[in-house]
Design goal:
Mg(2+) binds at residues 45, 84, 116. The active site is at residue 182. InterPro entries: Pantoate_hydroxy_MeTrfase, Pyrv/PenolPyrv_kinase-like_dom, Pyrv_kinase-like_dom_sf. Belongs to the PanB family. The chain is globular, with a radius of gyration of 20 Å. The protein has 11 helices and 8 strands. It has an 8-stranded parallel barrel, surrounded by 7 helices. Strand 6, helix 9 and strand 7 form a beta-alpha-beta unit. By secondary structure, the protein is an alpha/beta fold. The chain has 2 domains: 6-233, Alpha-Beta Barrel (TIM Barrel), CATH 3.20.20; 237-264. Helix 2 crosses helix 4 (62-75) and helix 6 (122-130) packs parallel to helix 8 (160-174). The longest helix has 17 residues, at 237-253. 41% of the residues lie in helices and 14% in strands. The structure holds 3-methyl-2-oxobutanoic acid and sodium ion.
């Protein structure tokens, strides 16, 4: 199959199909998820807390994300390569956003970028799209605004649903090729999807969006600790790796590795 492009995602929505998106930050998961047919690979700013050891997505920088993005782009030959613009790299002005978007496409080899925010960023999105940078908007719970939002909480409940629809429509009108919703009531997300011509992507947003995304270390059980309600675990990699590392350590200490078959 050829490369997934923006019009394929649009077609999926028009034909009532769903598409899948996973985060990935390096070569092997990029190769595997690409070969598995995942349509969109996201180099998320969640690399901050899933690769770089930070507690939140706030500290990660453009210079830290670019090499990860390049590694994924070189390793995936089918998926659309989508990169997050990290906190502080696009808020100042449309010009700053265009400059950062260009870096992700030129140095990171990304095909499109994602930024957090709604109607307030319409002008920014328009400038980027005009510059040839495809943009996905991210609304609902936006992790980069965690402190402004008062913590990890569902967005778009009650009257807030209207604002969410308005934000999504403003992004579409500005030229965004898709809108991602995080931690939004399923009913609200479905309303947004119905209001838009462009596809939507959900995480903790129910089944009414065009696409679904998960952070791969959550979905494959690599990360320890408590998982959000919206995460489904499709593998238990942490336990698998723990067992393997313990076995290797034991065999080295008891002298059973390496055996003759591993020696010259
Ligand atoms: O950075 C990230 O992982 C995201 C999620 C929506 C998957 O933006
Ligand atoms: Na993100």
């Amino acid at each position: 199959a050829g490369r997934v492009r923006l019009h394929h995602l649009r077609q999926a929505k028009e034909q009532g199909r769903h598409f899948a998106m996973l985060t990935t930050y390096e070569q092997y998961t990029a190769e595997i998820f690409d070969a598995a047919g995942i349509e969109v690979l996201l180099i998320g700013d969640s690399a901050s807390n899933n690769v770089y050891g930070n507690e939140t997505s706030l500290p990660v920088t453009v210079d830290e994300l670019l090499p990860l993005c390049r590694a994924v782009a070189r390793s995936a030959h089918h998926a659309l390569i989508l990169a997050d613009l990290p906190f502080g790299s696009y808020e100042v002005s449309p010009q700053q956003a265009v400059e950062t978007g260009v870096r992700f496409m030129k140095e990171g080899l990304a095909h499109a970028v994602k930024l957090e925010g709604g109607a307030f960023y319409a002008e920014t999105v328009r400038a980027m799209v005009q510059a040839g940078i495809p943009v996905m908007g991210h609304i609902g719970f936006t992790p980069q605004s965690e402190h402004a939002l008062g913590g990890y909480r569902v967005q778009g409940r009650g009257d807030d649903a209207e604002r969410l629809v308005a934000d999504a429509l403003a992004l579409e009108e500005a030229g965004a090729f898709a809108v991602l919703m995080e931690m939004v009531p399923a009913e609200t997300a479905a309303r947004v999807d119905a209001a838009l011509k462009v596809p939507t992507v959900g995480i903790g947003a129910g089944s009414g969006t065009t696409g679904q995304v998960l952070v791969w270390q959550d979905a494959m059980g690599l990360r320890g600790g408590k998982m959000a309600r919206f995460v489904k675990q499709y593998a238990q990699l942490r336990g698998t790796l723990m067992d393997a590392a313990q076995q290797f350590g034991d065999e080295v200490r008891n002298g059973s590795f390496p055996g003759p078959e591993h020696s010259f």
